[in-house]
Amino acid sequence: MRFFSDVRLTYARAVRAVLREPSWIIIGLAQPLFYLYLFGPLLKNGGVTRGLPAGTSSWDVFVPGLLVQLVLFNCAFNGFALLSEMRAGVLERLSVTPISRLALLLGRALRDATLVVIQGAILVGLAVPLGLHLHAGLVVAAVVLMALGVGLSCLGYGLALVLRSEDALAPVIQGFSLPLLLLSGIFLPLSFAPTWLDDTADANPLRHTTDAVRALMLGHGRSWVGIVVTCAFAVLLVIFGTRRFHNTEDLRIT
């Protein structure tokens, strides 16, 4: 079908841009690696494996949260790249071609999601010698994280089209990403939190994503609720981004 061909072409163009600067793959890993090597060891004797099966390491609890953090920061902030293309007139020129605007959005978002999966694989590979155990659920966890990445990228692109300024986009993205991060149990399971904080975090979709990815990578536990919530959340974000792409007439910043 024409639509899927358009998505493939947009995806290939976006991937080529990354291949021209492959160093960005490592740059995007910098923050998670700091947490992995400088914060992770502090949890070794912190009791984070309390209530989990014998043999579970603190890395089995901590690394899944780092993967969710990786997706959040590396996808939600991609709107800045779109603003650069708008300012250069690239997006405006692409919008007058036969390629659909939805394909222009999804091709980029799929590239972003693919990139974070590659970065996540590197992060997992570096965590294995530290004590992370691998389970078959890791494959499903990668699919869940990719779906989240597509949704967050669409959110970032949609907000860029609404705000049309790096100065406005930065505080907005930071403003919603910080509470999402703190209420997701990325660093510590929210089972350690007071009841009021645990209940508040239930309203955060990323809390359920983190729980699902953690359960999948631990190889046990309920994960279907988190998978469903993540997919529904991603669909809503894609709808938001799609509407912004269709309803924005001026795709150039002068």
From TrEMBL:
Pfam families: ABC2_membrane (PF01061). Its main location: membrane. It comes from the Bacteria. Residues 23-248 form the ABC transmembrane type-2 domain. One of its GO terms (molecular function) is ABC-type transporter activity. The keyword Transferase does not apply. Keywords: Antibiotic resistance, Cell membrane, Membrane, Transmembrane, Transmembrane helix, Transport. The keyword Membrane applies. It is a multi-pass membrane protein. InterPro entries: ABC2_TM, ABC2_TM_bact-type, ABC_2_transport, Nod_factor_ABC_transporter. Belongs to the ABC-2 integral membrane protein family. PANTHER family: NODULATION PROTEIN J. This is Transport permease protein. It comes from Pseudofrankia inefficax (strain DSM 45817 / CECT 9037 / DDB 130130 / EuI1c) (Frankia inefficax).
